Each structure stands twice: as C-alpha cells, then as structure tokens.
Automatic annotation (TrEMBL), chain A:
Residues 1-226 form the NAD-dependent epimerase/dehydratase domain. This is NAD-dependent epimerase/dehydratase family protein. It comes from the Bacteria. SUPFAM superfamilies: NAD(P)-binding Rossmann-fold domains. The lineage of its organism: Bacteria, Bacillati, Actinomycetota, Actinomycetes, Jiangellales. It comes from Jiangella ureilytica.
C-alpha cells in the first residue's frame, strides 16, 4: 500500500512497484485522483487525516505500507494549517491503523533531511543519529521532526514490524515540481546577501529507486539519502544561467510577501534557513547498510534538472563559454574550442 | 550554438589576431589566459566544493594571493619547524590565539600552504560566530574552515586532513594587550579527545607577532552586548580613525611548529578519560607557552 500517490513521486513509486514481479497487488491511497498514471496499481480514495485510512487498511490487508504523504510545501496542501494536519494528524492516523493491523510487516516512511534543520551551529555533515532539538523549529521542520517521533513511537510499540525511515535531501529532476525547483527557474533569483549555502540533491529517479529498495528488501533503520558531492547556491544558479539579486534576508515579510503574491514561489521559514545556511548529510550508512548507490551525483542531478527546465537564461552557459573561447583565442593565438 | 558558423569564424579571427600579437609584437597572453579560463569556470559553475564547503581553486587563485602581501611584506612572517607537519595523513595543529581579529589563523593557513613541501591546506576550525555572519561565513567555508564541533573535527581527521585549532577561542583573541603572550584556558579539551579518537598527532604551534597587530586597550562591553558580539575592541586606532583603524600594525611575526605529540599509543577509551585529556591538554599548553617565551626573546622588538 502506497499512501500519497496523487503527487509525482508517489505515483511513480506505485507504478514501479506494480510492475515488480514479486508483488501481487499495489494499492495507492490519496485524497485526490493522481495527476499521473500509477500503472497497474489500484487507486483508493481516502482521507489520511481521518479513520478512513484504517478502513482501507482493513480491506486491503497490506503487508507493507509506504508513507509518502508528508508535504514539504504549504502551497501543496493549501496553507500551513492543512499542511500540518496532513503531515502530523495524517501520520498519526496512518500509524494507528498500522498498529491495529495484523497484516502489516513493514513500514517505509519518506522523510527528509529537513529534520536536521539548518543553522550556524550545524555540523558540516549530519549523521543519522544527530537529530537534536536545539535549533528553533517552525513550520515544516517541526512537522518532519514530529512525524519521525511518531514513527519511532510506533516502532517501539510494534517491534515485530520493520520500520525504514529514508531521509532524502532535496529531490530534483526534469519532471518533479517542488518549492526548490520553482525557485531555480525564477528569471531572476533572490539570494541572501553574503551567503552561499552548500547543499546536496537526489535525482527523482534515485528517490524512487531508494524507496523501492526499502520496500522490496528488508532494511530497517534510518538512512540519509543524497547524491554524491555538493553544490553551492551561486554555482547552481550559474549552471542554470540565472542572474541573482542579493537581498539582506529572504525571511522578511516584505520579500516573502512579494514572492508569494506574485505567485512566483512560496518560501516558508525552513526554506529560508536552508537557503541561508545550507545543509550536508553523511551518506555512509546509505551505502553500507541500505546498500543503495545513487546513479546521479548532486551535480548530475542539477544538470538533468537544468537541462530540462532552465534553457535560455540570461547568463546562459553556452554564451559565456563562447565569449571565453574568443577571448582566449586572442590571448593564446590558438583555437581553444574543445580544449 | 557550437555548430553555428558565426562563432567558429569569430574564433578563427581571434586566434589569428592572437598569433599576430604574439609573433609580431611579442605580447604573451599566457597569464591572462589562465585568468580568463578561471573566470570562465567560475561563471559557468565548473568547480567543486567538498562537504565542508572548501573550494581549493578559489582559495589558491584568489584568497591566498590576497593575503600573501600581508604575509610577506607587512608581517614578514618567519616559519620554523615546518618539517614537523607530516606530508600526508591526519594531524591536528593547536596554536595560541591573539590579535583581536583572528588574522593569526589566516596567516597560519598561508604559512603551511607556502612553506610545506606538499603545499598542504590547513583546515581551520572556527567559532559559531564566524558562521552567523554573512560574507565571513561564506569566505570561511570557501577557504576550508569549518565549525569547531566534535563531529566536524573527527570527520576531517578521519579523512586524513591537516586541521588547525585555536583552543583559547575568544578568550585568547579578545584578551587585553596587557595580557599578551599569556595563554588562556584551553576550552574543555575537545580537540584533544578528537585527536585521541582518530589517533592523529597534535602539533603545538606558537605564533609570535599577532598580539601587536591590534593592541586592545579597552573593551566597550555594553556596545558588544548590544551587537551580540563577545567583545567590542578599543585599540589606539579603532574606532577613532574609522576604517583606517582597521589597518593592522606591522609587527614582526614568527610561527613555529613544534614536535608532534603522538596520540596513537593510548589505550582505547582514553578519549573519554578526563584525566588523560586534561594531562594532554596541559602538555600542549605548556609546550606552546614555553616556545612563546623563547621566540619572544629571539624576535626582539615587536616592530623592528
């Protein structure tokens, strides 16, 4: 049973699992009809915030539940209040149903590295056991932390059920739409003055693959999932050919208000902190214990995204390269193309 | 774009012009060419940073060259004992801290890079304040500095990096001029336990000269509290002369790297034994203090 199939990654995972030979039946649950094809999986409409989800679980009697219904952007939910309801109450209802169920053997939760927060006191690389409540938490960061706390409570009460929590770095790719993808395609991108946060990315394909591994294999535990290597924001925006406007802060109501009202991008406090301080996670455990190797590195993920979505920016890389080649031609007397 | 005929033609014309310049006028654009190639890589985002945000290319091409005139001509830094810094593998350089602004860590980074036969990068550890400030935090990460916390130190040492720590912290860098060359307390010895855990040798490092660059004769405590800073320095020139007061005084510097102190012959669990940690901390501290006294005598007058 895959919960949260109305959105891109959920739909892709459901379709992928339904095509898997070892799996008889895949039930996809969500409040609204999936926007994309979920392949051979069956769609069941249920509201995760109510006991509906328990009734679906009784009928379907799944042995594995994949929880992907944790929303990172409030715009997806239609505001901060429904976002919190879906994330927190939804998780509680789903776990309550799992706890009752006699059939469930495995629970997989798609969490995010947002649980670590970001700030000036953060270590360069977070390992899985470094979640601390020391940073101020609001909005989605708080939700992500609370969801995991409920999952840990569940695994204490049902030690017979294998629980896997995958904490993904920001997912990017040619198809997915998130707060971060919409931010990167702005014609002129606002950044924080004097800050150049570093970050990791996961390709959407790797994200689905990692969830598949966790669903099909038995790999209980908590794992960070991120592509190799790092990007810094200025570097990413140059690769996307986007000019920047440095602002003293992205968190001021004025800046946030303009961005939201003009419908360009809705940034909450967690995203503002991420774009100020950045974040890095340690992925050793992903390789050794989850036995998962992402195909795309952080840079390759960004380039795959940029190739599909950010053609023809003001500072297009090809244009800069052409200028560079001509200039170097004058300087060295050689045609430097292809050097 | 690469296939369109116009830029191809343009490039051929450019190459011809370049040949003419070189062959007939004797203008060699090699140096500028390297800079243009560098600028091109920066503008297209073709560079790499490590997990700590360290950008070796930017550090070597831009940041260190900016510091080098200060290092060579202003402070006339003399480096001793660089042979104690290993050619490869992890080591922890622990040094005294002074000077109101942490110029000493920048100069030590440059000293290691410029005098070490392998031109190693010293990965400095910085206080939380460094990472709260815009621009400063960015430059710090770019130049290889990371937050002074156990996780980061152990990760860096575990990767075989050369790490620099200034265990006195603000107590050292922000002490009044009257206290110069008197080592302050060495924190809680976190750097020693990190070295024990990773079995990295500790290299005591003594820096003479940094004390005189901004002699701190007073501390506007209420102003510091208002700004959320650990201290607000008053020097003979700052803030009285405005931005001019930020020019450091040209003292003569000596940086000496001492004999490495081995940490690999302790039993497992020593890192959690406070007695071992305190003893090692004291050993490092005493070595630095003794060397400082010797070097001071050797240097003679500060501005000579």
């Amino acid at each position: 049973m895959v919960v949260g199939v109305a959105r891109h990654l959920g739909a892709r995972l459901a379709a992928r699992l339904a095509a898997e030979p070892g799996i008889d039946r895949v039930v996809g649950v969500d409040l609204v009809e999936p926007a994309e094809s979920i392949g051979a999986a069956e769609f069941v409409r249920a509201d995760i915030r109510t006991s509906d989800v328990g009734r679906v679980m009784d009928r379907a009697a799944p042995d594995t539940v994949v929880h992907m219904n944790i929303l990172a952007t409030r715009a997806d939910a239609g505001g901060r209040t429904p976002q919190k309801e879906i994330n927190v109450i939804g998780t509680m209802q789903l776990l309550a149903a799992c706890q009752r169920s006699a059939s469930v053997r495995k629970v997989v939760v798609k969490s995010s590295t947002t649980v670590y927060g970001s700030g000036p006191q953060a270590p360069a690389l977070f390992a899985e056991d470094m979640v601390s409540g020391a940073y101020t938490r609001r909005g989605y960061e708080k939700d992500a932390g609370e969801v995991e706390a409920y999952v840990r409570g569940f695994s204490r009460r049902r030690p017979d059920v294998g629980v896997t929590i995958l904490r993904f770095a920001n997912v990017l790719g040619p198809d997915i739409r998130t707060g971060l993808t919409e931010y990167f395609v702005l014609p002129v991108v606002p950044v924080v003055l004097g800050r150049d946060p570093r970050f990791q990315l996961v390709h959407e394909q790797d994200c689905v693959d990692a969830l598949r591994v966790a669903t099909v294999e038995h790999r209980p535990g908590i794992f960070n999932v991120a592509g190799d290597g790092f990007l810094v924001l200025s570097q990413a925006l140059r690769r996307a050919g986007r000019p920047i406007v440095p602002l003293p802060t992205l968190g001021s109501p004025f800046v946030g208000g303009i961005l939201r009202r003009t419908g360009v991008v809705d940034m909450d406090s967690a995203m503002v902190r991420f774009l100020t301080y950045g974040r890095g996670v340690d992925t050793t455990r992903m390789r050794t214990q989850l036995k998962f190797d992402p195909v795309y590195s952080t840079v390759a993920t960004f380039d795959a995204f940029a190739g599909a979505r950010t053609r023809g920016g003001l500072l297009d890389r090809d244009r800069i390269r052409a200028v560079e080649h001509t200039l170097r031609g004058v300087l060295t007397g050689e045609d430097t193309r292809g050097r | 774009m690469a296939d369109s005929p116009l830029p191809g033609l343009l490039d051929r014309v450019a190459a011809a012009a370049g040949r003419a310049l070189r062959d007939h006028l004797g203008v060699d654009g090699e140096q500028i060419d390297k800079l243009v190639a560098f600028a091109g890589r920066r503008l297209t985002g073709e560079f790499e940073v490590d997990p700590f945000g360290f950008d070796p290319e930017l550090t070597e091409t831009v940041l260190l060259p900016i510091l080098r005139p200060f290092y060579r001509h202003w402070f006339r830094v003399e480096v001793r004992g660089i042979e104690h810094v290993p050619d490869s593998g992890a080591a922890l350089v622990a040094a005294n801290h002074s000077g109101t602004l942490p110029v000493d860590s920048l100069m030590t980074q440059l000293a290691v890079h410029d005098t070490h036969p392998k031109a190693r990068h010293l990965r400095a550890l910085g206080a939380t304040l460094v990472f709260q400030l815009p621009f400063v935090s960015d430059l710090a990460r770019r130049s290889g500095t990371t937050l002074a916390c156990n996780e980061d130190v152990e990760a860096l040492l575990g990767n075989g990096e050369l790490v620099g720590v200034w265990p006195e912290g603000f107590k050292g860098v922000g002490k009044p001029f009257s206290q110069r060359y008197k080592l302050q307390r060495f924190g809680r010895g976190g750097f020693v336990s990190a070295a024990l855990r990773t079995k990295a040798p500790i290299i005591p490092c003594s820096i003479v000269g940094a004390e005189e660059i901004y002699p701190m004769i007073g501390n506007a405590e209420s102003l510091a509290r208002l700004l959320g800073l650990p201290y607000f320095p008053l020097t003979p020139t700052f803030p009285w002369l405005g931005p001019l007061g930020l020019v450091p005084l040209p003292s003569k510097w000596i940086i000496e790297f001492g004999e490495p102190i081995r940490t690999d012959d302790y039993p497992p669990g020593a890192a959690d034994d406070p007695m071992v940690v305190f003893e090692l901390t004291d050993q490092v501290r005493d070595t630095i203090q003794a060397t400082l006294t010797e070097l001071l005598e050797l240097r003679g007058p500060a501005f000579g």
